[in-house]
Write a structure and sequence with these properties.
By secondary structure, the chain is α+β, with helices and mostly antiparallel strands. 19% of the residues lie in helices and 30% in strands.
Length: 230
């Protein structure tokens, strides 16, 4: 077992569990701080999968640039049933939903498991580090550059400028939180029948890596990064 979202099979190949992100261990990386609950996530992964047969299913790209296999993983429980690894990690509150443009299968089920754990305050959802951030909490967002966050708020303005969409959550785009969608990534939204300018006025939850450019922002590369709440 490597960590809470990566396992090693008996043929020594590594499997990265698509659709989730568990708290990260340093794993030999210099100056990489251990995330809260990283050891607990790894221990749960060991409990679920260690020394058990697994079935791998790929709903998208099946290998990453590091040569790891990418898969949804089903663990045989020894009693004729299976445990969905991703679902169990989310259900226990020791992972968050984390998707990619080329791996977006089972998102509705993943989000449902995450929401159930969050409702009960399990695992990560009991810590301030991982809580959902309001889009108006600019001091917090400005201090979280380079971190993966879930951010909620009302889209005050949605503009398409030369093919790039800006979802502005405040009145000052130079300081307030923004979600951006590049012209290249707009294709996935169009393919899903989504016009992101229709998010204007809606309360949404965006998830992704925070960067600082004209205030805190997230780049949305695929529709599953944005949940419409109301």
């Amino acid at each position: 077992m490597v960590d809470g979202d990566t396992i090693v099979l008996d043929d020594r190949s590594e499997v990265r569990m698509v659709g989730i992100q568990a708290p990260k261990l340093p794993l030999g990386r210099r100056n990489f701080p251990e995330w809260p609950l990283a050891k607990e996530a790894r221990d749960l992964a060991v409990d679920i999968a260690s020394r058990r047969d697994v079935v791998l299913w790929s709903g998208g790209s099946d290998e990453d640039r590091h040569g790891r296999r990418l898969a949804h993983t089903y663990v045989r429980d020894g009693q004729g049933g299976t445990i969905w690894f991703q679902g169990e990690m989310l259900r226990r509150g020791l992972a968050r939903v984390y998707t990619f443009p080329d791996n977006r299968a089972c998102v509705a089920d993943l989000l449902a498991q995450e929401a159930a754990a969050r409702e009960e305050g399990l695992g990560m959802w009991g810590l301030d580090t991982y809580r959902i951030v309001n889009a108006n909490e600019l001091d917090r967002l400005n201090s979280r550059e380079g971190s993966y966050e879930l951010i909620e708020g009302r889209v005050r303005e949605a503009k398409n400028i030369n093919g790039r969409v800006y979802l502005n959550f405040g009145t000052n785009y130079r300081d307030d939180f923004t979600v951006t969608i590049s012209p290249r990534d707009m294709k996935l939204f169009r393919d899903a029948g989504i016009d992101p300018t229709d998010y204007e006025g809606r309360i949404v939850r965006a998830r992704g890596w925070v960067r600082l450019f004209n205030g805190p922002s997230i780049d949305a590369t695929h529709p599953e990064q944005i949940e419409v709440l109301r």
